Amino acid sequence: MKKFYTKRFSLICAFAASALLLGGGCSEDETEPAIGSKGVSSEVFVSSDAGSRTIKVETSGPWQARLTPETRLWVSVDGADSGETGGSLNLNYRTNNSLPRKGTILVSSARQQVVDTIYLMQYGTTPLLEFKYIGKQYSSVSTIDSVAIDTNIPLSKKIYWTVVYDENSAAEPWADSVSYAQDFKYFRFRIADNKKFEPRTARFRLRFQDDWGEDHTTYFTAYQGIPGGTAETREMTFEELRGLIAEAEGEITLDQDIAVSGTVISDWASPNMAGSPMPKAAAKPDLGINDCTAYMQNADASLGLALVTTDAQQNNLQRYDKLKLWCKGLTLTKRSNPERYTLSGVTQDHIVTKEAGTAEELPAKRRFIDQLTDADIYTQVTLKRCQMAVRTGRFIPVHINYTNSFNNYYPAAVLDRHGDMIYLMTNHGCDWRFKEMPDGEGTITGIIVHEPYTFFERGGDIGRYQIRNVTREDIALDESADNVFSAVAVEWSPDGSKDPRAYAFPQYPHPATDSGQAHCVAATTGSGLSFMSTYAWLAVGSAYRAAENGLTINNASWGHKQLWDTAKNTGNSLIFEFSTQGVSSTQCSFVFTCRYHSAQGGLRYWTAEYSLDGDNWKKLTDFTVPDNGNWGNMQLEQLSGDKNVWMQVPTEILGQSVAWIRLRPVQNKIGTATTYDTATIASNGQVANAFTVSYAALRYNK
After folding, report:
1. Sign of the CA dihedral 230, 233, 239, 244?
2. How many CB atoms lie within 10 A of CB 685?
3. Which residues lie below 8 Å from residue 557, measured CB to CB, with a gap of 6+?
4. Do 8 and 160 form a contact (C-beta atoms < 8 A)?
5. pLDDT tens, residue by residue, 376-409
């Protein structure tokens, strides 16, 4: 050992600990001590319980007994505390519920001018002072850490700390800044950067000396590794690293002594860094994926990498950290369509240097959705002039029981001023997951990713790019719908408090069918009705988008089970009829949220069409509707909540006194409890559970 430092401090709070009352099980010294005119000291041991002792005073002249101020807090003299010649001194003492203590009684003799000392030693609780664990391995990167202490030492006592370094340590201290943290129940310290290629250790000792003079010590050893890499490590650019895999896809283990440097754009503390897909049917998602995932971009933010640590404890990367990462031994994976790269197997030992940065130092990348390219993947981008496609919706419109167990993340549709759409990914761990999304426009900052989402689509294809915000503040949208680039031409958004069956229009004619009694849901904004092409009585469902606690509000969606005409072998439609009179724009879109009310057996394949005359229909887009979750045997393509579907609509639908959009099943293929589309509908044309819609809107740019 070559160097040590010693400090002391008061322990600010006492810790609960079970301990043995020593005095309760020990017999005190029953002999009556004698003092007087000798100038000596004597120790008298007494029980932790309250009691009294008599001290014989043997002197030929006057004497006087005096208790020190600390002793008077728990010891008193019963009777005379002085005499002319000899006598006795009767001491009373209180119960001791704390550590062993020592009282001091001074007996002075005037004639001989000497002082005798009596030390009253009272048993108590055994002092406890222990680190919760004896050592820990640290990387070469500076960090602040704390170790839990188990102790019962009172606030007024002193604890001394010492740190001793081994021979590999630098001349200056590197384990310092000692303090207490978290209600003073932890020993807190700083570990400095280790820039030498030699491991080193520092041993902390805590020492407490009780009133009886006994030492109580505990030790903790910090082991610090060498910097990631070696003195010969060569730094590569992101382009050079990516170029190590020439094929369209591939995976290699890096055996070169190389490193890359960049800025971390993720945060280990964020619950929204990566999704947790189900690995297979009926299996719960791996929730640890989020905590092991980080992202780093190069200096000019032109390229990015995903980083995957071996476990959550290895990921301490904070947003804007300037990171140099040793790559030897890591696995580099390249995927295509879109092109993206991942480094996996990262541990603390791969960190060469890490320095805190700021948001202001990060290059600003502002994009419209259609300007994104594969080079933006795993970089931080701010999307301009955005708004959420579904007003009054929740970030995760999935029942909380299923987000707890299966559908642990969700894509919500985001539109921009140019009429393009991207999905905003939100994990169940986010505290804003069931909050209502802002209705206004603004920016969304986040990491561009590519994440398949099988709960929406078989195979998971929901677009080439998605975006993951790190914090809720990254979603900088105005709360007010008044500040937005688009306007609502017509919208159906029941608030859940009114039964849709209140909107009934008997004998209402419309050109979609011959004639009959239509049962309709009226638009909540603009002029419009929604009804089944068969004039069927609309079924009333529920929508998970409505409740802030993740639970259901009833009567907030509408639809029907009668979805197939078996005689004609064609689907029955849910129709939206509306007026766009006086509206004109260069951009127009239609969005709706849909689901099967519960369980399995829904028609899988659908199309959306529009008409200006009620007779001729033009295709807008095809889409699928997943089955509701099967609690006992959850499938990869099942969603226990609303799916949002968005599509661009030709602007010729605007300026019409009446126009129509319909949602129509196009294949007689339904799912089962364990399959995606292997069955057919019942002979009566009914699905097992109603197809329902809880929100629909036609929007146009102002």
Report:
1. negative
2. 19
3. 494, 540, 541, 542, 543, 595, 597, 692, 693, 694
4. yes
5. 999 999 999 999 999 888 999 998 988 989 999 9
Q: Going along 435-573, which residue ranges are E strands?
A: 442-449, 466-468, 475-477, 486-492, 504-505, 518-519, 521-522, 528-532, 539-543, 553-562, 564-565, 570-571
Of 611, 456, 595, which is closest to residue 539 (Cα–Cα)? 595
The yes-or-no verdict on residue 35 having pLDDT over 90 is no
CB 152 within 8 A of CB 19: yes
Q: Is the pLDDT of residue 103 over 70?
A: yes
Q: Which helix (H) or strand (E) holds 91?
A: strand 87-93
Sign of CA dihedral 494, 500, 502, 503: positive
Q: CA-to-CA distance for 290 and 271, rounded, in angstroms? A: 7
| Dihedral, 690, 694, 700, 701 alpha carbons, nearest 10 | -140
Half-sphere exposure of 343 (CA within 13 A, CB side): 25
**Each residue's pLDDT tens digit, 246-258:** 999 999 999 999 9
Give the three-state DSSP class for 360. helix
Q: Which 3-state string (H, E, C) describes 127-145? A: CCEEECCCEEEECCCCEEE
Q: What pLDDT, on the 0 to 100 scale, is given for residue 198?
A: 86
- Tell me the residue ranges of DSSP E strands in 319-379: 322-326, 331-335, 340-346, 351-355, 366-367
Both tokens of residue 248?
């369209």
Tell me the average pLDDT across 616-624.
Answer: 98
The alpha carbon of 396 is separated from its chain's Cα centroid by a whole number of angstroms, namely: 15
Q: Give the pair of three-digit tokens for residue 136.
A: 């820990």
Helix then strand count (H, E) for the chain reads 3, 50
DSSP label at residue 71: G
Q: Taking the mean position of all CA atoms in its chain, how far away is CA 465?
A: 23
Residues 40, 44, 50, CA angle at the centre, nearest 5°? 145
0.85 exceeded by pTM: no
Distance CA 671, CA 665 (A): 14
Strand partners, 202: 165, 222
pLDDT in tens, 402-444: 898 999 999 999 999 999 999 999 999 999 999 999 999 999 9
Confidence of residue 6 (pLDDT cuts 50, 70, 90): very low
CA angle 660, 662, 667 (to 5 degrees): 155
Q: 3-class DSSP state for residue 557?
A: strand
| Cα 314–chain centre separation | 16
* Rounded distance between C-alpha atoms, residue 378 and residue 448, angstroms: 5
Q: Provide the pLDDT for residue 140.
A: 87
For residues 594 and 693, the answer to whether their CB atoms sit within 8 Å is yes
CA distance 698 to 371: 25
CA geometry: angle 415, 421, 425, nearest 5 deg: 90
Average pLDDT over residues 528-547: 79
The one-character DSSP state at 125 is B
Dihedral sign for Cα 128, 132, 135, 139, please: negative
Taking the C-alpha atoms of residue 623 and residue 675, their distance in angstroms, rounded to an integer, is 18
Q: Which DSSP helix (H) or strand (E) runs through 401?
A: helix 400-405
How many Cβ atoms sit within 10 Å of the Cβ of residue 25?
10
Total residue count of the chain as it appears in this document: 702
Rg (CA), the chain: 38
**Residue 611: phi, psi to the nearest 5?**
-145, 145
